[in-house]
Specification:
The structure is a homodimer.
Chain A (H helix, E strand, L loop, with lengths): L12 E2 L5 E3 L3 H23 L17 H15 L4 H10 L24 H19 L3 H17 L11 H12 L2 H13 L31 H18 L2 H17 L31 H18 L2 H15 L17 E2 L9 E2 L10 E2 L3 H11 L2 H4 E4 L2 E4 L5 E5 L2 E7 L6 E8 L5 E6 L2 H4 L18 E3 L2 E7 L6 E5 L5 E5 L9 E6 L2 E8 L8 E3 L6 E4 H6 L17 E9 L9 E2 L8 E9 L9 E4 L2 E2 L2
Parallel strand pairs in A: 4-5, 7-11
Antiparallel strand pairs in A: 1-6, 2-8, 3-23, 6-7, 8-9, 9-10, 10-14, 11-13, 12-13, 15-16, 16-17, 16-24, 17-22, 17-23, 18-20, 19-20, 20-22
Helix pairs in contact in A: 1-2, 1-12, 2-4, 2-12, 4-5, 4-6, 6-7, 6-8, 7-8, 8-9, 8-10, 10-11
């Protein structure tokens, strides 16, 4: 099955790229952008910077983990069947040492620095690339190299107490076990997970919590430390738990996930509150301006949620994956696919600079085409390439659509086309193209904002009587019945823009509200800070008003055209009433209350957060002070 | 004159340690603690860790800038006449190379790394130690070594474009010029200031702004980057400006100071909002929880304000020095002088751990006896040692008391004793002990909270008619008149506790208030978080109520004794009415408004911020959500 995660057991069975084909739409357009632009963009930059040349024994360039970017790109190429795969894979394979070791930075000086060397991290990405190739197009010189590399890791590390400062190898080894059935890979992964936090690594300045080595995995209360490391380790732990039937370990990760989502996760799904250590903060430490919310941590969070969904069937995991995909992962690349956010703050006070070269750091307020630590672009490349794998799952009785997006799904004789403009529209139609003779169900996840209070139009059926869906838990279920080609079932999710308030313990956004519509978080964006966002206070007495892209484009709303974008992005903007309260300077930012400032009424236009920053330097805020 | 800063011109002339003698009281007790405990504590740790042994060619230990800690301790010993000075100084002097170069880390490998080497930074602290010795007790082998070292720096760096990644040498060289009259030291300092920002250093990951090399000093709009570096550079720039009569440069620093105090400075006077790069943030980026507010940045801010006060006579600089001394510098050491805060946040959610050994990092929630980067303890040692230098200044017509604290001041035939329990009491009496035959004035700075709106008892005089002070600008002026020994003049500053509100642009504390009383910022401290500070909302309808230490000690208030402390610390606590609103967990920290939580009324006890963290692990907050 062409899916990055194929557990041997679990409540839900994944459907792979061979079962789900994306049509043009929010998700399909991103996969197309990946195939047409992002993959090539990454290839060009890594060629130019010598990261590919490293495999040809050219003078070593880039950071110690640069190899992993090449592997993530190979993985992206494998998922998309990119014709450049063979040449790049051949370059990589040629650099492998006879015993299977493969690392362009540490060759000849292996395994001296587990804290920062990233050797097993790189090996993990190599393995994932090989697995992707194997599952999409069968064995290949790269898959041979991957087995050799994994065997070398097992020989070297099966005994002892060493782990890598950056988790990643764990989930890679489990997947290789799933593919090959070789138990040693699973056992090696299990040991890497169990060794952590005893501790196994040195007490660095950032503390052992940085690499999740402060406490054993199954005893942690929440995710902490470096957010990407935390997500990757949790993915590996879930994989190990599922394959070893370790219910305690799975329950531990679920509890950590619950704690983290309830107290340490930004509205966008972003994880990691601190630039220092690129790390989680304390509970309720969720600053919008200094949110790090690294793109890769968001991708890791989606990977983890997907694993937990498969293992447990709880739609809560798909809810969070949706939030993160639409509001964090989708926000990182520019609309043209040629520059990327590394950090994804929810508030930008000062318009950023447009970076045109390699950024030496994780900028917050502007995208860059490449980074010295460039994990995010290639991570997006492989994630967009494998998006079909996240759409739907199967059980013996039918299929479950977790993410409504235009696509065709085939499983076990049932083929349906999902027709929707989601997330712009809440209408989701499922058209049966091919059907087996036995009864099946088709279900659609109801996001929390649609499944909460009863809502007019919440669960409208447009089909004949017996096609009316049944609400079961957090899903709308059609069937179980025998389907006929041509039949259409439909649901209408309520898409009105709504206010969202923070828990009072989130100190950093006290007194503010945000706006969401469907799965999208909105934000105010002000190019060159022309509308001074520091002085705006929104009026909660009137609900947010919607303006569709069509209205905007037609000029009917007396406005400039909406942001351009892929043709199927019928962007919906939102407007709220607000006032501007200009503040003077009184010499200190703290004072007794002064004169009430003059107020000006204004209409504040909000755009989907994932689209901000595509029109030059701007200020931005998701959380809006409320009067 | 025994003062760290002796400009050749300026509106006010400093008074040195030879003119101001501290009596027991808030300031005097801290100087005594320094002499009795802190200096010895630093000496012990540096001996134990080998930082002193480095000068004896023992295997090199500690960070690349460890020498500077020894120099700061020598400076502290010089200001206090510590008998251990000679031995330590001899150890240092013996390590000097024949041409004057002295650095235990880079000997034999000089000047290879201007970004991180800290060689000129260390040389600057060596020079300051020598200047302190020279001004308090005359020439010494160390002062010879200092001239030799400074001459070596001038020979090596007078031409070229190099600067040190950490400013410090600039102000040291100017002071050596002031002491010796050797113009080359001033010229070298001037060139170091002017070279910066052209740029002179490499573009590191944190950016050149980290070491103020992004823009020339006189063109910056605000202080930015690493806060300690910014303060030290600004000190050097003011010193250069004063000695070269460079009005443009002085005006530039004044403008940067105004911008920074108005938009980038915490209520405690703390500077530096970010842990990343230990740096200033953007305007109004002032998070209470992640405030870095390094102790050394506070000390640097006091040093800068002192220089600007001398140059311009503006009491605004003394106001800020007072805020910073009472609420940041005084907060760093534990009451016993044996452990220190490095970072000084205004909100601590999770009780810290008690550190008993060298801390590898700048903890936020607990003091440590020593740090791997241990700049703060020795900086406190030299600052407390030189506190008398900050109390008062002179002009030809009299003396100006900027900081009321129990002390005796002698200048030009006039000797007065300042009698006060400030900051606990607002009564300040000035008793004349000795007087010249010609008329003089004595003035007392009125802090903004005392000088603002007319206030009953604001300017009460207790003396005969002609001793009634006159308000002139932001000072109360007694005289100008011929004084007689035994005469007493007095003022009463209004000390009622008051609410303070943040500028609405300080997003991080929107909806909160703080409490101040006199110069002190107060905070709620909850040992082991017994009063759950995340759930408390204060009631602004009733003013904060005061409880003095006497009341608390006598048990009259039905309460446990106040925090213990030096005998002259008649600690005043403050109580505010509040309610507790317990919050549940709803699975996400953002939601539609739920049930109104049950409320419990409670009295929230506040303590002066500078005393927090002396009673074991605790949560703490300065900014209190208001209902």
């Amino acid at each position: 099955m062409a899916n990055p995660v194929v557990p041997s057991s679990g409540v839900l069975t994944p459907l792979g790229l061979d079962a789900v084909r994306l049509d043009p739409g929010f998700w399909g357009d991103r996969r197309t952008l990946d195939q047409d632009v992002i993959i090539g963009h990454c290839l060009e930059w890594m060629d130019k910077l010598g990261w590919i040349g490293n495999f040809r024994s050219e003078p070593r360039r880039g950071r110690e983990f640069a190899d992993s970017e090449v592997y993530k790109l190979l993985e992206a190429m494998a998922w998309t069947g990119d014709r450049r795969f063979d040449e790049l894979a051949a370059t990589v394979v040629a650099a492998q040492e006879p015993d299977g070791y493969l690392n362009t930075r540490w060759s000849g000086d292996r395994y001296r620095d587990f804290e920062w060397g990233h050797e097993l991290y790189c090996a993990g990405h190599l393995i994932q690339a090989g697995v992707a190739r194997w599952r999409t197009a069968g064995e290949h010189p790269l898959t041979d190299a991957v087995r050799l590399a994994a065997d070398q890791v097992c020989r070297r590390f099966m005994e002892g107490h060493e782990v890598c400062g950056h988790p990643e190898i764990e989930m890679a080894l489990v997947e290789l076990y799933r593919l090959t059935g070789a138990e040693r890979y699973l056992e090696m992964a299990r040991r890497f997970v169990e060794r952590r936090g005893r501790p196994a690594l040195a007490d660095i300045e950032l503390g052992r919590a940085y690499f999740q080595d402060d406490v054993p995995v199954r005893r942690a209360a929440a995710f902490g430390g470096h957010a990407v490391r935390a997500m990757y380790l949790a993915c590996g732990a879930v994989d190990v738990a599922v394959e070893t039937r370790d219910a305690e370990l799975l329950a531990a990760i679920e509890a950590q996930w619950e704690h983290t989502v309830a107290r340490r996760t930004h509205l966008t799904g972003g994880m990691g509150s601190r630039h220092t250590g690129e790390s989680f903060g304390e509970d309720f430490e969720l600053p919008p301006d200094r949110a790090y919310a690294e793109t890769c941590a968001g991708i890791g969070s989606v990977m983890l949620a997907h694993r937990l969904l498969l293992a447990t069937g709880r739609s809560r995991y798909a809810d969070q994956a949706e939030r993160t995909l639409y509001n964090l992962v989708a926000a990182s690349p520019a609309l043209d696919g040629r520059s990327f956010f590394y950090a994804n703050p929810l508030h930008v006070r000062t318009p950023g600079r447009v970076a045109e070269d390699v950024s030496p750091r994780a900028e917050s307020a502007s995208r860059a085409p490449w980074f010295q630590v460039s994990c995010c672009p290639t991570n997006l490349a492989r994630t967009f390439a494998s998006l079909p794998a996240y759409v739907a799952t199967a059980t013996p009785g039918g299929i479950q659509i977790h993410h409504p997006t235009a696509c065709e799904i085939s499983h076990d004789g049932l083929t349906v086309r999902v027709e929707t403009l989601y997330p712009w529209s809440g209408s989701v139609a499922v058209r049966v193209l091919e059907a087996p003779a036995d009864p099946r169900h088709v279900s659609l996840r109801l996001p929390p904002w649609a499944a909460g209070a009863p809502h007019p139009g919440d669960t409208v059926s447009r089909g004949p009587e017996d096609l009316t869906p049944v609400r079961r838990g957090s899903a709308l279920v059609f069937g179980e019945r025998v389907w006929a080609p041509g039949e259409v079932v439909a649901a209408e999710l309520p898409m009105e823009a709504r206010w969202v308030r923070p828990d009072p313990r989130v100190d950093a956004v006290r007194g503010c509200v945000a706006v969401e519509r469907g799965p999208l978080v909105y934000c105010a964006e002000s190019p060159r800070d022309e509308v001074r966002l520091a002085e705006v206070v929104v009026d909660l007495s009137r609900p947010p008003a919607e303006r569709t892209g069509d209205e905007l484009r037609s000029g009917a709303a007396g406005d400039a055209p909406a942001h351009d974008g892929p043709p199927h992005d019928g962007v919906v903007r939102v407007e709220v009433r607000a006032s501007r309260r200009p503040e003077g300077d009184n010499g200190r930012p703290y004072a007794e209350a002064g004169d009430t400032p003059r107020e000006e009424e204004l209409t504040l236009r909000l755009v989907p957060y994932h689209r901000w920053g595509n029109h030059g330097p701007a200020t931005m805020r998701v959380w809006l002070p409320a009067g």
